[in-house]
Amino acid sequence: MLSGAPKLTRRTGRLPTARLAAAVCFALVLVAAGCAASNPGGGRPRPASGTAGAPIPTATGIASNGGPSQSPAITPPLVTPTPAPSYPLVDSCNPKSVPGAVAVRSLASGKASSFTLHVPILMYHRIVPLAAAGDSIRGLVVTPQTFAAQLDALQEAGWHTITMATLAYDLQARVTPPSKTFVITIDDGWYDGYMYALPILESHGFVATYYVIAGRIDRPDFLSSSQLQALTAAGDDIGDHTMDHVSLPRQTPAGMTYEIDAAAARIAQVTGRWPESLAYPSGGVDKQVAAAVAACGELRMAVVEEQMVAVPPAAKHKAGASPTPQPTKVPAAAETWAGRFAVPRIRVNPSTSPAALLTELSRYQ
Questions:
Q1: Which CATH number goes with the domain that contains 256?
Q2: Residue range 288-326, pLDDT digits in tens
Q3: Which of 198, 246, 259, 277 could form an SS bridge with 164, CB 3.0 to 4.6 Å?
Q4: What DSSP letter does each residue of 277-302 carry, written as one string?
């Protein structure tokens, strides 16, 4: 018996009420002392395994699909990010400069001809929720919901996609793609091209050409090497958007060559495939720039920008009133061998409705 504990009465074996209460309190003190000894910190017990001091996962209440979860999701402990791969600088468009990288099917060659393709090429920049777009120009931000609605309309109307690499090959080989073929291009290489655009593309059975700024690969907010490899494995095409996204007409001949060639080589290092087309930053191109692109034999096509022009029906006006000015009808763009290094695209804006996009593409049929 513990020293100082109250004794039982000889007649009943029971404690008087006051002494019973004192015994209970004494026992509780002993229990508390034992707990303090097993957990000296006095706080939450440490996990049975794991790193001491590691952050404890907390419930977020958000499911992986962005909606409310049935059971709270768990935020994993923080980990040190894997360092981005390091690539040697290769300032050359020669396929031999990147061992193992797959070259194009056939280098650009041939003479100008009358063969023409009418394949619409759509131009996007960011496919991301506005709240995650940061300080990006709002006119270049298309939300995933809008992007999905646009592709829904095109798919339901029977349109299907090819990449710029396939378009370049078809033009060179004089092969006419099936009716209602179009190309999706996404510029600048933001991370959302993988995070948001890819799942939407795959759900429609579509592919795209991603024009990446090679010097930004593996940087925060931009596509990583592994993401670019995943895009390539999914059947998408990675195109050249220069090394540093500078205006090519303002560069010296050497600087111009570096921006084009080093970017092509970096993409080949990362994806294992040489890019087959280039997008001029801000659409800037002149004869010298086009010649520098043509000098890189792997690049068989280059694209510029074109504001979307959807021609509405003639507006009605009252008798005696001046007619409402109408937009000028712009002929649908065409791809020719002679003009392959200045191929126009259709810019898709966040305000472009699915119906307007269908109207625009119908001009190419």
A1: 3.20.20.370
A2: 999 999 999 999 999 998 755 444 444 444 555 555 555
A3: 277
A4: EEE-GGG---HHHHHHHHHSTT--EE
